[in-house]
Amino acid sequence: MLLDVDSTLTSVEGIAWLAARRGADVMAAVDAMTVDAMNGALPLDAVYAKRLALVRPSRADLTALSVAYAEGLLPDALAALRTLRDAGVRLVLVSGGLREAILPFAAGLGFDAHDVHAVELEFTPDGAYAGFDAASPLACAGGKPRVARSLGLPAPVLAVGDGSTDAELKGCVDAFAAFIGVARREPVVAVADYVVAAFSELPGIVL
């Protein structure tokens, strides 16, 4: 099973959380771009670099974001993950979020680093933002299907997420579940095979 992170496993939308630390003007600009990207009005690659250039997250920011992710863990998520793992289901995180923030959060949920796919940042020696891995497929539209295909997971594969980049997975997995427990995006729901409001519903679908 492929899982998104932001607004799926956790109530936190990472880039919005980081933008809020930079003030109201940055938060508003980033939020507008994020809404357009998540609803499919703009391709992810049109906004990814622009948002990071505005926010310029430091290593310390990402450490704090990881804590916020854990605090925003959705109810029943951990129990559902345990049930699926106990049944032999392989779980993989595929996110357009920032790997340095997601890794500690994911480790707390039992994910190995090799099952966490996200975008890496670059930093100066003192931990200031210096850029991101622009070659990462997860920083552009169509990236999640590319990563999913590269994993070679045995069928059937269910993908779960809340945004337009998650919906892109529908063509390369056996089924796609739109997660609406944090945000309901109608263009995503429209293409979904399942609509899921809580993690407690997932074992019943998968098993």
A few lines on this structure:
The chain has 207 residues and is an alpha/beta fold. The chain has helices at residues 14-20, 24-38, 48-55, 59-71, 77-86, 99-108, 143-151, 164-167, 186-191, 202-206; strands at residues 2-3, 92-98, 116-119, 121-123, 129-132, 158-161, 175-179, 194-196. Strands 3-2-1-6-7-8 form a six-stranded parallel beta sheet, with helices on both faces.
Largest sheet: 6 strands, parallel
Radius of gyration: 16 Å
The helix/strand series, from N terminus to C terminus, equals EHHHHHEHEEEHEHEHEH
What structural class is derived from the secondary structure elements?
alpha/beta
Low-confidence blocks of residues:
none
Biggest sheet: strand arrangement: 3-2-1-6-7-8
Our estimate of the beta-strand percent is 15-25%
The tally of helices reads: 10
Percentage of residues assigned to helices:
40-55%
Total strand count, please?
A: 8
Distance between the termini: 11 Å
Mean of the pLDDT scores?
95
Shape designation: globular
